[in-house]
Design brief:
This protein is of the alpha/beta class. It is built from seven helices and five strands; from the N terminus they run ββααβααββααα. The longest helix has 24 residues, at 157-180.
């Protein structure tokens, strides 16, 4: 498909040292704004899968590189929050999209992830010339040209930025939901299958926001 084979660049306004980030290497020569798109929460047992789309201006790239931006999973919670605030301040545009637990159970987690990504891109008020999508799956029925990049959050600044924004947004949501569902220790596990979370599922059963199609949530409550 021609759209998924396109490449694009965000040209730096000043000379930069050699970098492994794609924005400074193989993505070069095609003008236009580029959106990084990434998701978080795909492997969680609880809550929505969340995606972010972020468009960064040229002058933000060296700033974020100097700030040592990286894959959101490799950052501390405090550092992610700081970087997310900086990314949102510098971005030309950024938006969040998500797919609910009901949608995950209905269409499966892969399709729900792509739907969350599509929703994030469609919410952008500034239309990018190209979307860099983390992973190896293209977003279906997206009119904007796109390129998939495996391990994109380690290779593209725009994707890494989207990853951080999505992670912080989802974590904040789960922290609020933890107050409503205290037995699952969500404030610590963020909806993922920690030992305490799995034990709580066995004891209390799944909540309305657990992913019933995920095997750990298909359990019977233990007799008291």
């Amino acid at each position: 498909m021609a759209e998924t084979q396109q490449t694009a660049a965000i040209c730096s306004p000043a000379p930069l040292e050699k970098s492994s980030w794609l924005e400074f290497s193989t993505l070069s020569g095609i003008p236009g704004l580029v959106a990084g798109v990434d998701e978080v929460g795909r492997g969680a047992l609880f809550g929505p899968v969340v995606a972010a789309a972020a468009i960064l201006p040229d002058d933000a790239l060296p700033k974020l590189m100097a700030a040592k931006i990286k894959d959101s999973k490799k950052l501390s919670s405090q550092r992610r929050t700081q970087l997310a605030e900086e990314i949102c301040r510098l971005a030309v545009d950024w938006k969040i999209g998500f797919a609910s637990t009901a949608e995950i159970d209905e269409i499966n987690i892969l399709q729900a992830t792509l739907l969350a990504m599509k929703r994030a891109v469609l919410k952008l008020k500034v239309q990018p010339a190209l979307c860099l999508v983390d992973g190896n799956q293209s977003i279906k029925d997206l009119l904007v040209p796109q390129q998939t990049i495996v391990k994109g959050d380690e290779r593209s600044l725009a994707i890494a930025a989207a990853s951080i924004v999505a992670k912080v947004w989802r974590d904040d949501l789960i922290m609020r939901l933890a107050l409503k569902y205290p037995v699952y220790n969500l404030e610590c596990n963020k909806g993922y299958g920690s030992q305490q979370h799995l034990l709580a599922l066995q004891q209390y059963g799944p909540s309305p926001l657990h992913r019933k199609s995920f095997r750990p949530c298909k359990i019977k409550i233990l007799d008291s």
